[in-house]
């Protein structure tokens, strides 16, 4: 019995060490660690906290029908490939309620070579400060994740969508359900 225990320790000890050293071990690669922002909730006058993991998205898909309406069928198709939707949004009474460290915590994760910044908007007018960044994580011809960071003087929002995102299907929702209509030209 002692030899068996020794073998188990030799096999599992390195795995446990890796799991402790690497906080993303076993985590979906496109999933950002945004839980650290929860400390801002006490300073915020309004907080939005959305956590829809794969189990909740699967459950939501069961309530959507392809037969009731074409729009509902489109949503079901888009949501079916997702593994999670995570949003943290904070609105403050005054500026200076979040720090550069709070932003750096998120931006460091987006420096991973798997992420590509596709949108960057910065406004530094007097009395205004706004920084909007959108990143995609893609593998070959598939998008595996989306991250958006919007930081203003009195607000901070992080959106993270994890899973297979088909841009053509996603763009078909534009103009429906409050999603703005964009002129997206994909492919030809």
Explain the layout of strands and helices.
Blueprint: H1 2-21, E1 46-53, H2 54-63, H3 70-80, E2 82-91, H4 100-109, E3 115-123, E4 130-139, E5 142-152, E6 155-165, H5 167-171
Antiparallel strand pairs: 1-2, 2-6, 3-4, 4-5, 5-6
What does this protein look like?
With 188 residues, the protein is an alpha+beta fold. It has a domain of 95 residues. It is 30% helix and 31% strand. The chain has a six-stranded antiparallel beta sheet. A hairpin with a 2-residue loop joins β5 and β6.
Question: Structural class, from helix and strand content?
Answer: alpha+beta
Number of strands: 6
User: How large is the count of helical segments?
Assistant: 5
- The fraction of residues assigned to DSSP E strands is 25-35%
Mean pLDDT: 76
The coarse overall form would be globular
Characteristic terms for this protein:
single chain; 188 residues; alpha+beta; six-stranded antiparallel β-sheet; 6 strands; 31% strand; disordered N terminus
Compose a concise summary of this entry.
This protein is an alpha+beta fold and 188 residues long. The protein has helices at 2-21, 54-63, 70-80, 100-109, 167-171, and strands spanning 46-53, 82-91, 115-123, 130-139, 142-152, 155-165. The protein has a domain at 45-51 and 84-171.
């Amino acid at each position: 019995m002692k030899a068996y225990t020794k073998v188990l320790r030799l096999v599992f000890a390195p795995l446990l060490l890796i799991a402790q050293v690497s906080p993303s071990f076993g985590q979906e690669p496109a999933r950002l660690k945004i839980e650290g922002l929860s400390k801002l909730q006490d300073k915020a006058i309004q907080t939005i906290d959305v956590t829809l993991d794969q189990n909740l998205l699967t459950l939501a898909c069961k309530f959507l029908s392809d037969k009731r309406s074409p729009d509902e069928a489109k949503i079901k198709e888009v949501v079916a490939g997702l593994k999670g939707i995570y949003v943290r949004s904070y609105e403050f009474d005054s500026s200076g309620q979040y720090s550069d460290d709070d932003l750096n915590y998120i931006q460091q994760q987006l420096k991973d070579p798997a992420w590509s910044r596709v949108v960057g908007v910065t406004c530094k007018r007097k009395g205004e400060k706004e920084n909007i960044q959108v990143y995609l994580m893609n593998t070959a011809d598939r998008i595996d994740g989306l991250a958006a960071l919007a930081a203003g003087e009195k607000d901070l929002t992080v959106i993270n969508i994890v899973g297979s995102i088909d841009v053509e299907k996603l763009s078909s929702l534009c103009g429906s359900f409050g999603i703005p209509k964009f002129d997206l030209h994909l492919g030809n």
